[in-house]
From TrEMBL:
Annotated transmembrane regions: none
Natural source organism: Candidatus Kaiserbacteria bacterium CG10_big_fil_rev_8_21_14_0_10_59_10
An MF annotation (GO) of this entry: DNA binding
The RNA polymerase sigma factor 70 region 4 type domain, residue ranges: 118-169
Protein name: RNA polymerase sigma factor
Xref: PANTHER family: RNA POLYMERASE ECF-TYPE SIGMA FACTO (PTHR43133), RNA POLYMERASE SIGMA-70 FACTOR (PTHR43133:SF57)
SUPFAM superfamilies xrefs: Sigma2 domain of RNA polymerase sigma factors, Sigma3 and sigma4 domains of RNA polymerase sigma factors
Boundaries of every RNA polymerase sigma-70 region domain copy: 22-88
A Pfam family that the UniProt record links to this protein: Sigma70_r4_2
């Protein structure tokens, strides 16, 4: 764990209102984690982000430094929240996704806008676990070991998920005619649960 994270955590344990420094440091990254996994649903992403930090804050006193970044810990909470959210019987049909719901990294890799939309639709149709692993690896640039920790899986399991997901996408009907497809390597507000402390 980075030295400054250790200091921020120890400070927050002594003075809970100081947890805001960790929130400021990681809020955007946690929000983006949800943003790309909820079809760019800002309100839902914001709610899930707040819940992630609330859970981390509630368990702050029990938190122990285990050698991995605090962001990895936050994203493991976020991953579990997202899994729980998608287990509920409410999901957005692919045909109702906004037309601009295409992450810029995908747009850069695929030459025509329609191809990018097709790829994004194909990603949204993946099972949640596959989509999550794929986005963490390619969108967020996370190493396999961090993804494994977040998903509570072995590194080999994550590699297998990524391999199968790439194969599934390569043969997806949306992408069959896309020659360019190939796997390749906000404003800050104080967290609600800290307001009034």
């Amino acid at each position: 764990m980075h030295h400054d994270d250790v200091l921020l955590i120890d400070t927050a344990k002594a003075t809970p209102a100081k947890y805001e420094a960790l929130y400021r440091k990681y809020a955007d990254k946690v929000f983006n984690y949800f943003w790309y996994r909820t079809g760019h649903d800002k309100e839902l992403s914001e709610d899930l982000m707040q819940e992630t930090f609330l859970r981390a804050f509630r368990h702050l006193r029990k938190f122990k430094h285990r050698g991995y970044p605090y962001l990895t810990y936050l994203l493991s909470i976020a991953h579990n929240l997202l899994v729980d959210h998608y287990r509920k019987p409410k999901s957005v049909p692919v045909n109702e996704l906004p037309t601009d719901a295409v992450p810029y990294e995908i747009t850069e890799d695929v030459y025509r806008k329609s191809e990018a939309k097709a790829l994004w639709r194909a990603i949204q149709e993946l099972p949640a676990r596959n989509r999550d692993a794929l986005l963490m690896y390619y969108q967020d640039g996370k190493p396999i070991k961090d993804i494994a920790r977040i998903m509570n899986a072995s590194e080999n399991a994550v590699k297998l998920i990524l391999s199968r997901t790439r194969k599934k996408l390569a043969s997806h009907p949306y992408l069959m005619d896309i020659a360019a497809f190939a796997p390749k390597k906000r404003m800050y507000t104080s967290p609600r649960f800290l307001q009034g402390r």
